[in-house]
Queue: 4 jobs
Job 1
Amino acid sequence: MSLFQFTSRRLVSQAYCGLKPPSSKKQRICLEMARPNSNMADFREVFAKAKHIAIITGAGVSAESGVPTFRGTGGYWRKWQAQELATPEAFARNSSRVWEFYHYRRELMLSKQPNPAHIAIAECEARLSKQGRSVVVITQNIDELHRKAGTKHLLEIHGSLFKTRCTSCGNVAKNYKSPICPALAGKGAPDPEIEDAKIPVENLPRCEEQGCNGLLRPHVVWFGETLNSDILTEVENELEICDLCLVVGTSSVVYPAAMFAPQVSARGVPVAEFNMQATPATNRFRFHFPGPCGTTLPPALARHKTEIIS
């Protein structure tokens, strides 16, 4: 069994969503490599030979579509940061406030479109599939912009804004209603001066399974919750066979996703990072391309001169 298999299988059983720094300075030093290469021609030569490409994406790729990241300075909805709302405890305390937050995000996403980075990934997947090559997208994003762009092989490790899960019967269902329930119509504006709607729990989104009527929650992974073990197993399998890995628009600080690419790199597979700035993992990768993903990614994934299109 490989080191990657052992480590990731252990993660499958205990992985949870959260922010976590590297465990020690010694560990950071041991895992660092030489300064990464930013030569696009060199990357393109590696890309041309790859048969199984894994692309890991984070909030940065969607930020270029105008999607709020809810991170860092200005990362607030009303008076709260996402970490204060995206928890089981917050939902138990104030389901109305949490649903206002997610209703705002759902309505916002219905107005957003994929940007050139999303489109480049989807077009690359479609093109390479005709050549017997594969592309899988492993995303931390819950906005479905990859799906909207046309990506087919998609693993959404943190769930989706457009799925709900019943807190009573556990049923998971796609839900694109706008508004998701009448009581949330016109609610959820992010202005810090706006008061909570204080919607009675019986008027919040309810399960439509026969005889249930349980309270629905967004089918997303909140801080402190375990990730879906089946999806993590799929991720493990894809990362085990990939011969090229791209990390796009991710800060590399949200675990366990922050461990994926470094583990791939540790077994000698080329990893290319596309991000606005360097991250804690940058020096562990072979390539780093700074700048907006919508600018750097399309030429990186464009048809190579050696590709034969039937």
Job 2
Amino acid sequence: GIDSSECENVSKEKETSEESEANAMDSLIDMPFATIDIQDECAVTDVPHINLERSKENERISKAQIKKRKKKQKDHQPNYFLSIPITNKEITRGIKVLQNAILQQDKQLAKAMISDGSFHITLLVMQLLNEEEVNIGIGALLELKPFIEEILQGRQLILPFQGIDTFGNQVGFVKLAEGDHIQPLLDIAEAAKRTFQEKGILAGEHRSFKPHLTFMKLSKAPWLRKKGVKKIDPELYENFISHRFGEEMVQRIDLCSMLKKKQSNGYYHCESSIVIGDKNGGEPDDAELVRLSKRLVENAVLKAVQQYLEETQNKSKPGDGSSVKTQEADRNGNDSDNNRK
């Protein structure tokens, strides 16, 4: 004899339990061990022989490995990149239309959208840890220019954009159309990687270079997962699958920071730039040379001041040899004065 209210409570508890299990499995799918047969890894044996000491040791080793892996990932985390900015208004307007069409279907995706001032193609990512390395990066960018001019042989590099695709339904991007422009762009990316690595800069990725124009990222709004948005639904952009967004004539390559405050127009903080296809050919821009020289002089002055301050502090420390000599000289001087008196 169970009344209807109790039946309803039992039903709700069952639904909640099933929902929790579904959420747990969704989380496991995103884990790096998703391809492992969980049943094989976690199977219970008929006769359990648990060695507590060995279990603790394995747990300690596992924690140490995780900590080491996280440190390695942090040590190799890129914070700068080479950018080809998208300046064609036709392309940016087309992407805004695409974004608005998606938001009309799901307004909560607004925070996942890339702002129109930030549209670009990433040519190379790298890690620059201090101002000295940033200066080296600027120098590498200037050295890259003649290699680019050699690849292009006086031709303009024009990039046509058409269609939509995603990386794992997590990053939405406008595709670069197929054509003769692909190979020169790949050659420029390879030349950039080689030039920066030869300077001792940690640059490049393990995966192959795939040029793309990002317009949205779910990682920009991680709270969306809690609301059930775990993937970009292809139906959101199905009307733009073959849409032509326009062509970008590559005129500039920038060395940009991922972490520094963006400019007022929404574009990334830019340390230096080279102009592509200008009249000066392979010669670096005068303005960039002046800018780099100024930075080098400023850094040299700062280093000299720091060195002077360190030496001054060392001399003033108790027990320092120079301090003892000064005290001895003062004492000798006083003894001489007393003898004269």
Job 3
Amino acid sequence: MITDQENAIAQDDDVVRVPNGFTGSVIGLTLKISFVKTVIGKKENNQEMSTNLKYLSLSILVFQTTSLVLTMRYSRTLKEEGPRYLSSTAVVLAELLKILSCVLLVYKDSKCNLRTLNRVLHDEILNKPMETLKLAIPSGIYTLQNNLLYVALSNLDAATYQVTYQLKILTTALFSVSMLSKKLGIYQWLSLVILMTGVAFVQWPSDSQATAAKEHSAGSQFVGLMAVLIACFSSGFAGVYFEKILKETKQSVWIRNIQLGFFGSIFGLMGVYIYDGEQLSKNGFFQGYNKLTWIVVVLQALGGLVIAAVIKYADNILKGFATSLSIILSTLISYFWLQDFVPTSVFFFGAILVIAATFLYGYDPKPAGNPIKA
């Protein structure tokens, strides 16, 4: 006698009777597959987001580097009525703006809680005076460097400055070897030789550059070159010293930047009153300020934050690409817009060598894997 269940199975071929244990195994396997797909999907989304952040940070770095150099050069050579703004005051304002930006970032990391922010600042800065004082040395050097960049761009065109300033790779490498006992590979040593050769070609005098200097330059190219060279050495030493401090402590980079900005503003104010005190008493702190000056201040203040983001999300190869693109853009804009630079074949050859050295220094050859045996 056929039961109702057997009759149903006979009428519908899609209904299959299986053991209960097997059904449970299939459901469990299905759930595991679904979980794995979810995890893989999240990883792919995270990778895509990380890639987007990487290229976004690099785009911002190219924009910040190029626009800062060009606007700083333009603001220092622009002929206007009345006194020109004091670069020493611009450096102080940039430090204060950097402090404000880092405090806001610490506030964000503190889940937007004022009590937590106050406790973090008190514990990490006020309760650790010796740790804070360690930042006085690199802060003073960075302040000197920032003032020197204004001197350099008052006397050099943006393209020549951009290429020559890449000598900071050489000084950073030398200080890393001496202070951090860092070992450089053969590619890195080779890149440093190429870098020095490229900068030498860029600085090689030519008739067209001499003519352009007489017509457009606001000062002496020798003064600009010396300012860049000193800035390269100060940048290399301060950068390595700061890196050493970061490795020895667990404080966040934003806290460290607040400490740097605090000392930087103090040293900057000292420089204002020592070197520009007379002009300050005549025309005031904000003499010669306009919209362009404030743009320069904002770009200089955000420079360190952009570099921190690039270090976090990008690698040396992409950073080298950003530097190279910035050099190219500065060269083109200096020639077509500022019209204070006449490129020569020697300059282009030197610039290509510097760009190649930048890529080569960040190149990290991966060891070849063992061949798979059959």
Job 4
Amino acid sequence: VLGQSPEALVGGLTETTPGGRKTRERKLEVSMESVSCSAAAVRTGDMESQRDLSLVPERLQRREQERQLEVERRKQKRQNQEAEKENSHFFAATFARERAAVEELLERAESVERLEEAASRLQGLQKLLNDSVFFLAAYDLRQGQQALARLQAALDERRRELQPKKRFAFKTRRKDAASSTKVDAAPGIPPAVESIRDSPLPKKAEGDLGSSWVCGFSNLDSQVLEKRASELHQRDVLLTELSNCTVKLYGNPNTLRLTRTHSCKLLCGPVSTSVFLEDCSDCVLAVACQQLRIHSTKDTRIFMQVTSRAIVEDCSGIQFAPYTWSYPEIDKDFESSGLDRSKNNWNDVDDFNWLARDMASPNWSILPEEERNIQWD
């Protein structure tokens, strides 16, 4: 013990005495616990880092997909604009050439055969306009429709001029009186329906379409309404603010517009260009047309024949099925309309509120076959 420093004596006591061994063991335990905590912290940090790393590629992949979709949309839009520009130039040149040919035939028509040739070319002109509705501007479409209406009127006038005149004959007063009471009467239409057929449209509604070719019904409830081919031929039809009505349109209208209508049944012959629905609900329709657009409409069943693609926007509960309505003169009206009866995209619908390509839109569906048995009459 003599000659040793106090530090050595303390160190010896720490190593040799039982108290020193206990102190060392406690130090070792504390060190092991620290190491364990550090290792656990490292493992936790590694797991969080791995989880973050697993999420980062998913987010990046989703962003990349969205970016590619946007690039594809812009590319498609640019291509569509270029195609529409080219198609518009082609349409303008072809329409002008065919219109001039029809006008020349009508001016020089001295026989029924020449008139039939003019009628055939006019039908081809109508089909050209129908096929061009998708890319034409509204102004160009309206100009084309008005030109066709003028040509059709000129054709009808020339037909009347070439018809052989009837021989003069005396008629009894009774027959004259009877015939005068039946002017403008459509066969098979009850008097109640006849009184409703020509209910005038409000001036504002007529002004909206801006044409003397407008006809239709408005502000009626629980009525049966009808118009015949002579009243509808190549005219714009407007049906607005109807409730619980049945509307039958026999013939070939130029356009059809149905707005603010509830719980109605509409049956319409072939429409040369477009059918437009807006703010309708709980309706059943049978329409054939070149283009169908439906806006802000719900719970409506549509039996249709459409040569392009139907469009829905801000709609819900819309159901589609093939066009099944028929009447005696429908073949003639289809021929006059220029619609291709062999082409029907009734189940090919674009929803402007649903852009996902891998999932069906919840806003429209196919009407099941067992629910398509509709009594039209």
